């Protein structure tokens, strides 16, 4: 491990490289702060996991919802790509083809991994998959510690410039670098909660998790009123109603295009 000054220089280089490779936002979080976080703690107490087929895809060997941490992982590099409302195709699933936003995140991850392995041979580098069941981490929490924004009333990470219209990924490294957050930022205080009012399933309709019952002060959508099953029902309807389209930027073949509900993102006034 180098001196504090050396680690700061290393951190700045990594952050600027991630931006150079296409990340709109990037920050660093200490792995120690992410362990046993509220998402992981709440998971076994969840009223309805819904989409429980994810449980069948567990490759970590851990209980559903538990995070696999590599023993020597010290810092999470958390990066994100803006998904603005005027580029909705960033988030469209066309047949089995990854949405352009996911592809961009994958490209950034690949370039960053190559850079880290070449620049710091011997340093552990663990690119993290999206699904916690497959070794991923809880990205919103990691982004909060990395200073990328706050977790808002819509239960999403809200960035000061891009609002909640961001997609996130992370990579862990074996070097303990200075954390870049959290940030003092709370746009939800005093907001009229347009995000909640516009939910087609009223997924934020009633408090289902309390601090008394869970022992957690950090609850889904802050007040414990985000109901995952209602959200999933809307997303399943989006899948059923997906129309067959020809989108040349994806494929010459006609394919089913799934456009998932994003009301809680689009109705947020931050970053517009
Ligand atoms: C499974 C999953 C889903 C499931 C279940 C969601 C859920 N929240 O349970 C379904 C399919 C329903 C879903 C829906 C959506 N998802 Co989703 N989803 C995930 C995934 C893979 C894991 C989330 C999870 O299981 N959390 C566990 C539960 C228990 O926690 P939770 O509900 O998030 O609540 C915790 C936090 O809010 C936290 N918390 C609250 N306040 C605070 C404050 C602080 C300081 C801290 C540290 C923590 C904290 O404490 C709560 C637990 O008590 C993540 C990717 C990842 N690897 O993290 C993406 C992810 C969260 N989803 C994302 C998105 C965009 C969506 C949708 C908009 C759909 C879409 N079009 O993509 C909706 C929005 C739903 C919403 N408003 O929350 C993005 C969010 C980006 C952002 N800006 O925040 C992520 C990060 C994926 C990505 N590509 O970037 N999703």
Q: How large a portion of the residues is in β-strands, by DSSP E?
A: 5-15%
Chemical compounds bound to the protein: cobalamin
Shape: globular
Secondary structure class reads alpha+beta
Give me the number of helical elements.
9
Question: What is the helix/strand order?
Answer: HEHHEEHEHEEEHHHEEH
What would you say this structure looks like, in words?
The protein is α+β, with helices and mostly antiparallel strands and 272 residues long. The chain has one domain (4-266). The chain has helices at residues 4-20, 31-34, 38-42, 100-119, 139-145, 194-197, 211-214, 228-240, 263-266, and strands at 25-30, 75-82, 93-94, 125-127, 150-151, 157-158, 166-173, 243-245, 255-258. It has a 4-stranded antiparallel sheet with strand order 1-2-7-4, with helices on both faces. Strands 3-9-8 form a 3-stranded antiparallel sheet. The mean pLDDT is 95. Cobalamin (B12) binds next to helix 3, helix 5, strand 7, helix 8 and helix 9.
Any key phrases for this structure?
four-stranded antiparallel sheet, 9 helices, alpha+beta, globular, binds cobalamin, 272 residues, three-stranded antiparallel sheet, single chain, 9 strands
Helix and strand arrangement:
Layout: H1 4-20, E1 25-30, H2 31-34, H3 38-42, E2 75-82, E3 93-94, H4 100-119, E4 125-127, H5 139-145, E5 150-151, E6 157-158, E7 166-173, H6 194-197, H7 211-214, H8 228-240, E8 243-245, E9 255-258, H9 263-266
Antiparallel strand pairs: 1-2, 2-7, 3-9, 4-7, 5-6, 8-9
This protein binds cobalamin.
């Amino acid at each position: 491990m180098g001196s504090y000054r050396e680690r700061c220089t290393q951190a700045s280089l990594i952050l600027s490289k991630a931006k150079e490779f296409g990340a709109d936002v990037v920050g660093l979080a200490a792995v120690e702060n992410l362990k046993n976080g509220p998402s992981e703690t709440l998971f076994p107490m969840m009223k309805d996991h819904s989409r429980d087929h994810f449980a069948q895809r567990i490759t970590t060997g851990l209980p559903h919802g538990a995070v696999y941490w590599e023993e020597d992982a010290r810092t999470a590099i958390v990066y994100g790509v803006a998904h603005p409302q005027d580029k909705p195709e960033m988030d469209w699933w066309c047949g089995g083809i990854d949405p352009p936003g996911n592809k961009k995140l994958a490209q950034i991850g690949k370039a960053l991994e190559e850079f880290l392995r070449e620049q710091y041979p011997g340093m552990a580098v663990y690119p993290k998959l999206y699904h916690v069941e497959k070794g991923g981490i809880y990205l919103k929490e990691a982004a909060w510690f990395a200073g990328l924004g706050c977790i808002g009333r819509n239960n999403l990470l809200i960035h000061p410039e891009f609002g909640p219209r961001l997609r996130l990924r992370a990579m862990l490294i074996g070097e303990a670098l200075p954390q870049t957050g959290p940030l003092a930022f709370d746009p939800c205080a005093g907001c009229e909660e347009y995000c909640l009012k516009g939910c087609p399933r009223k997924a934020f309709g009633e408090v289902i998790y309390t601090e008394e019952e869970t022992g957690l002060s950090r609850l889904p959508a802050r007040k414990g009123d985000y109901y995952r099953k209602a959200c999933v029902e809307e997303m399943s309807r989006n899948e059923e109603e997906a129309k067959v389209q020809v989108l040349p930027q994806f494929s010459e073949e006609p394919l089913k295009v799934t456009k998932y509900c994003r009301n809680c993102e689009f109705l947020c006034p931050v970053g517009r």
